[in-house]
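Troubleshooting: if your tokenizer reports a length mismatch, compare your output against this known-good record of 129 residues.
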Amino acid sequence: YDLLGRLGHSPPEQEAFLTRIVIGVPPDRARQTWEQGCPTSWLNPDAPPFFILHGDIDTFVSARQAEAFADRLRAVSGQPVVYAELPGAQHMWEALPSVRTAATVAAVDRFLSHLHRQYSNRSASAPGR
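Known-good structure output:
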């Protein structure tokens, strides 16, 4: 959520990993690249609806950072922002098929279906329809 540590709660090894494996250069040599890849840099009133799912034992991106991101997004967005913390889930917990993954897919489907129903209802009641 915050590659540059502005939300706090970043593990000390995160910047080294991102520099070495993901971005290729440290933030002090490529600040704009890091900014562009940082979700917190894109928070604005035009943000779409969000359903943030995060593991409570994620050791790469802390749940506190995810929660702070959700709070900041709610503060600027007029769209729904849902935050769900999954007990016992680590980073990339959804990468392998499991009962938890299936339940998560079902929850995301319900969220998206709800948004679609709202959109359809607004469209159907719009003037000129």
